[in-house]
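Two folds, back to back.
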Amino acid sequence: MSSKRFPNKIISEINGQSTIELIANRVRQVSFTELPLVLATTDGVRDDLLETYAYSLGLSVFRGPESDVLARVITAGTNMSATHILRLNGDCPLVEPTLIEAGLKLLYQKKHSLVSSKSILGLPYGVSVEIVDIDLLQKLWPQTNKIQREHIFNSVYEHLSIESVSVAGGGFPLRPDLRLTVDIPGDNQRIGNLIELNGSDPTLVKYWDLPFVPP
């Protein structure tokens, strides 16, 4: 809620749904397995309202230090007895359920420490999937610096060899023209307009069906 560029952006609306509500509704379409959804937010007073709102959406909530996101995520996962973490950014409303399913299938097949679509150039900014072994995060945490604790996957990518990563997203449509993140005021309206032009339900819309955005 205390974003400097766009305060309260996680509850900003996109076509009648808050950003966090839209994320939850889209992830709940993943058919491969049932995913327990946890909001890992800060212990700052400004996020008291967010905690209450998340409970109303049926989410679990864990609260931890604002500056150490890595520790917050690790503890949230261990409290849920999780073996892996699927990271969902709270400012990426159009996460793609089928891409998450593809990542989960790779996780079960390859047993690698990390499943990621980050190396697939051309996927829209805002739909990537990242799934990591929580034991690896715990192993890396004592070695991390301030930046790595704020950007939790930096240390993972720096530590792992390419042979330890399953690459998800191959074969998915490439749309480098799209930026599907809510970073600054107006981004929620911009994404909402694209969905309206497509004529789809925001919960169901596919990024590859959105109108082309010229540079």
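---
second:
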Amino acid sequence: MTDSFKQTGKTNELKINIKEALDIHFWCEELSLKKEELLEIISKVGPKVHDVRLHFAKRLLISWPVAY
């Protein structure tokens, strides 16, 4: 995170900074992911929050049990 996090207490809402433990922790809590899962998604789609959320949502839909 940048110095703005230290000043405002907010994380960047557009990008996940994998070099900052607080940023990783925040987004793991926000998305209910383990650190390894979050880093795996970021390695696939990049650090943009929108892309990470979209990938995570698609992954949830694919694994959603279908009952007929």
